[in-house]
Structure formats: structure tokens, C-alpha cells
Amino acid sequence: MEEAQLREESESELPKLDFEQCRVLGSLIEKELTTPEYYPMTLNSLLNACNQKNNRSPRVNFSEEQVSHSIDQLRTKGLAFRMDLVGSRVPKFQHHSEKKLDLIKPERAILAELLNRGPQTGGQLRSRASRMFDFESLSDVEETITEMQDRDEPLVMDMDPAPGQKERRWRHTLAPPPAVEESEGSTVYVPAPDPSIEKVESMETEFKELRDEVEALRYQIREMSDDFREFKKQFD
After folding, report:
1. Across the chain, what does the average pLDDT equal?
2. Is the separation of the CB atoms in 16 and 175 below 8 Å?
3. What is the predicted pLDDT for the residue at 90?
4. CA distance 67 to 23
5. What is the pLDDT of residue 222?
6. Beta pairing partners, 188
7. Residue 97 near residue 103, CB atoms below 8 Å
8. Measured between alpha carbons, how far is 66 from 235 in angstroms, rounded to an integer?
9. Dist. CA 130–CA 119, nearest whole Å
10. β-pairing, 169-172 with 179-183?
11. Contact residues for 210 (Cβ-Cβ < 8 A; gap 6+)
């Protein structure tokens, strides 16, 4: 399964990420732009960044194992790498999106927001990404989004406006589009399930169906065998 996934990704310029990998990558990009003095990041600081309550949607409570696994996957996909600094007791990590995805600073700011908070309008992106890059106007944000969308492999795509709103929203394309749910008047984005998990669940369902069919066949064969023995007794 992993080899097939790697072949699929080699045919496409854009890596495919699950929700946890998106949050880890988004946190790395955000911290590089907002707190460069604490970047690259240790595993513990990256864990705290992923689980922080502000500037994140949905909020999560990742374990160290989850973040460690995600950073390993990002390293495999060429989106992050490990640094062993002289005098440092623990390894540190940093993203590689500026090279792997060919991103300039304003594009990294937009992508980080989409990775960390899900789909947003241009106005929301301008306000929220200002911590990472100072967009002078909404048109600057829209121009950046257009450049990210007009690539051979688009990094962003538009979505329908939220119920009761007119502004279109934007999402990143490194993962499947999230489901949109309305809860108490607010829009909630539910991350798309991990395709590998869906495949496993599908295989488990198919296996159960095959097992049930085999059990049914065994029962039929047992009945036929009993009937044959009764029929044979008539000639003994």
C-alpha cells in the first residue's frame, strides 16, 4: 500500500497529506514566520504548537507519537527535515515548503492559515495571516491566492460561500476537501478522513462479507453431506 501511495505522489507534483500532517506542516510554517527566534522546533514545541487553542480549527489534542509519526511522513514527502544542531541535546525540525512547493513568504502565510484553520474567505485570510505577513490590502491577498490557484498544480481552490454569506471561501489542495457542518449558527469544517483508513475499513468489510459467505457455504455443504449419508443408507 505504501509503495502504491509513493508511486501516486511521484506522478503528481503536490504531496497528499492527511489531517495530522496538515496541522504539523501548518504549525511549522506559522512558527517560522511568527517566532523565528524559536525556530527550528523541537518535537515538544511542535506538539504544543499543534495543540494550541488559538488560531486553530478544529482544536486537537495530538500525542507525541502522532506528531512524531507525522513529521516522519512529512520528511519522506520532502516537506520537512531534521536538524541536529551543535550543542543541542534534542533534534529540531523545520519545514521545506518554500523549496518543495516553491512558496514565497506571502504564499506561505496563506497556506499556513488554510492548513491550521481550514477554508476561509479572503477577508479572513488577510486579517489572520497578518501575524505572518503584512498584506497591504485585500487585493494583495486576492492576487496571492490567484497566483497559488493558477499553477499547473493549484495549491488553493475556491468553495461555495457559507450559508447566509456571499463571499467565497478558499481551501488548500494538499488534502481532500473537508466536510462542512453548521453548528449553532457557526460553520464547522470536519477534516476529510484519511484515505488509507477508509481503505482498511473497506477491506475489513469485504473480509467480513467473505467470511460470512464461507460460513454459509460450509453450512450448506454440511447439510448436503448429511442428506447424502441418509440417501446412501437406503442402499446398504
Report:
1. 86
2. yes
3. 92
4. 9
5. 78
6. 181
7. yes
8. 69
9. 17
10. unpaired
11. none
For 77, what's the count of Cα atoms within 13 Å in the CB-facing half-sphere?
A: 26
pLDDT higher than 70, residue 130: yes
Please tell me the pTM assigned to this model: 0.76
Residue 85: how many other CB atoms lie within 10 Å = 10
Note the pLDDT tens digit of each residue in 174-227: 999 988 766 655 555 667 665 554 554 556 666 677 777 777 777 778 777 777
Q: Report the pLDDT value the prediction gives residue 108, as an integer from 0 to 100.
A: 98
Termini Cα distance of the chain = 57
CB burial of residue 116 (10 Å; 0-12, 13-18, 19+): buried
Please state, in angstroms and rounded to a whole number, the distance separating the CA atoms of residues 163 and 28.
Answer: 32
The CA distance from 211 to 203, in Å, is 12
Give the per-residue pLDDT at 148.
98
Type of residue found at 170:
W
Dump the DSSP string for 6-35: HHHHHTSSS----HHHHHHHHHHHHHHHH-
Q: C-alpha cell of 174?
A: 494538499
Q: Which residue has the cell 507519537?
A: 65
Calpha distance 164→225 (Å, rounded): 67
Task: Report the 10 Å Cβ neighbour count for 111.
Answer: 26
Residue corresponding to grid cell 470536519: 190
Q: Is 133 helix (H, G, I), strand (E, B) or coil?
A: coil
**Cβ atoms of 9 and 16 closer than 8 Å:** yes
Exposed, middle or buried, 236 (CB in 10 Å: 0-12/13-18/19+)? Answer: exposed
- The β-bridge relationship of strands 80-83 and 92-95 is antiparallel
